[in-house]
Design goal:
Rossmann fold; 2 domains; four-stranded parallel β-sheet; 4 strands; 49% helix; 10% strand
Length: 211
């Protein structure tokens, strides 16, 4: 019996750009009612809809995705999902952006072997690229700091009597709200900078940091 073909689409909640992936699924022949769309932030990779989809699939079914990164966040996770689906669950996978990544039944052993090799190579390259990007960012930040370049928002310059007021707050003589009003700052800004100043000065008198 021929397996059922399902599609999985994942997009960021900020971008809301699933149309291209849906069009690719439709062109490939995946029925719209069998396509699961997951919208989530880039930081969240729990993918509850993906998990529900694959848990409900049977051996011989086909999972269609637009690109290989739909399966995981990194090299190890992608390979783990690939092996679990194709080996343990006997679910076939089709990656539309890479025709070689197609493990549907009926393909010969060579074709499946090529798919496995290509997958590992692509996943490795993608992971290396992400690590290179992080390394370049770290090197760029370090180089900027050496040149005295400040990255991010400029820190607010504290008023001349800041240290006096901060000392009073550390000594428990005034509240954070009172200190902020005196200095013309927001309470949040005063509290953050007063804590930083006190720690740098080695102050230990103030036990309660609520501000």
């Amino acid at each position: 019996m021929k397996g059922i073909m399902y599609g999985y689409v994942r997009v960021s909640t900020r971008e809301q750009r699933e149309d291209r992936q849906l069009a690719a699924m439709r062109e490939f022949g995946v029925e719209r009612e069998r396509v699961v769309v997951e919208k989530q932030s880039g930081k969240d990779f729990d993918r509850p809809r993906y998990q529900a989809l694959v848990e409900g699939m049977n051996a011989g079914d086909v999972l269609v995705i637009k690109s290989i990164d739909r399966l995981g966040r990194n090299y190890e996770e992608i390979l783990e999902q690939w092996r679990w689906l194709t080996k343990a669950r006997e679910i076939s996978i089709v990656v539309l952006d890479m025709p070689l990544l197609d493990t549907r039944q009926g393909r010969d052993l060579t074709g499946v072997l090529v798919a496995d090799i290509v997958l590992q190579l692509l996943s490795y390259v993608a992971q290396q690229e992400r690590e290179f990007i992080r390394q370049r960012q770290a090197e760029g930040i370090a180089a900027a700091k050496e040149k005295g370049i400040h990255l991010g928002r400029e820190r607010i310059v504290m008023p001349g009597e800041f240290e006096t007021v901060a000392q009073q707050w550390w000594d428990g003589e005034i509240t954070g709200e009172q200190a902020a009003v005196r200095l013309g700052l927001s309470r949040r800004t005063f509290c953050r900078r007063a804590k930083e100043w006190g720690v740098a000065e080695g102050l230990t008198h103030r036990v309660v940091f609520s501000c």
